[in-house]
Amino acid sequence: MAQYTKHPVAAPPVAPERESTGHLLLRAYATLVLFAVFAHTAVYNLVGEVGAGVIMALFLLGALAIGIPMLAQGRPQPFAWRRLPWAALAYTALALLSVAWSQWRLPTILTWVPSRPSPSTRC
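Request: output the structure for the sequence above.
Response:
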């Protein structure tokens, strides 16, 4: 016997399409680079001045090897502004803005500039 229902007859829901392996690898690479950049002091202390420079140069070359072909193929879609990490960007903007009320403006600005340690500070 047929029953009355308010739910329309439709196909059952399906799982969303999975991300491709290449996209997952790109996300993992971006996460690794972000971690290495924020933990540069740890990388420097772990492998020394030359090693840290080599690692950062390799990350830069990797980013160029990924980005240049994507730009050449015209693959990047319009920039997805909604997917930006707005909390992290706001924190970075606040950190940059803090120079205005900082008592130590020059040292604060120098923390934004990658620099080599002076010979007197080396062990």
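The radius of gyration is 24 Å.
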